[in-house]
Write a structure and sequence with these properties.
The chain has about 190 residues and is α+β, with helices and mostly antiparallel strands. The chain has 5 helices and 8 strands. Strands 1, 2, 3, 4, 5, 6, 7 and 8 form an 8-stranded mixed sheet that branches. A hairpin with an 8-residue loop joins β1 and β2. α3 runs antiparallel to α5.
Length: about 190
């Protein structure tokens, strides 16, 4: 017995739409995405290396995930969803550490957007619980104040990860010397 054949619906030819970052990320054109209808693009995500947005090779290990929120003509406007360091980079740095502290902080920005930050703190030697707790508390407090005093567009700027990590490293040096990686910044 022969199988019934499905009728394929042809929607026409796909069109190319340019994906552009928001104004506060310098309106960089990231490339093209194809679709039959512009309405089907809204809500899709695009993940690109951060160096394409910033133009700096220093940001080669970080990525930014953008969501398409609006299509105007043949241009897709986006908003950032996540800023993160690739897992391979974290694992490479993690090999030398004896002690690891992961600090997850949820906070709301000035413009009422919930943000989650994951900080990864690496210590060269084993430490007692009191030191671990002090590091965790200092990290949480700094990240909460950093997020609550800024707007979402400031949180998802190109330099945010480095800024938070450098300030935390300086603050935590008073407790115990360590390395800090801001692993993920996510809009919840």
């Amino acid at each position: 017995m022969a199988k019934p054949t499905k009728k394929l619906l042809k929607k026409g030819k796909k069109k190319g739409f340019n994906v552009v970052t928001p104004d506060y990320l310098n309106s960089v054109e990231l490339g093209q995405i194809t679709a039959f209808e512009p309405d089907t693009l809204i809500g899709r995500t695009v993940c690109v290396p951060l160096k394409e947005v910033s133009g700096s090779m220093r940001d080669g290990t970080s990525k930014i995930k953008l969501r398409i929120v609006k299509v105007q003509g043949e241009t897709c406007q986006t908003e950032p969803m996540q800023l993160f360091v690739q897992n391979a980079q974290v694992q490479r740095i993690d090999r030398r550490a004896k002690e690891r502290i992961i600090c997850i902080v949820d906070e709301v920005t000035k413009d009422k957007q919930p943000i989650r930050v994951k900080a990864y703190i690496l210590l060269n030697n084993s430490v007692i619980r009191k030191v671990r707790t002090a590091i965790h508390t200092a990290t949480t407090n700094y990240i909460k104040t950093f997020i609550s005093t800024r707007e979402t567009k400031d949180i998802f700027s190109v330099t945010t990860q480095r800024t938070i990590a450098n300030h935390l490293k300086d603050d935590l040096k008073k407790i115990y010397p360590c390395s800090v990686i801001i692993w993920k910044i996510t809009k919840a």
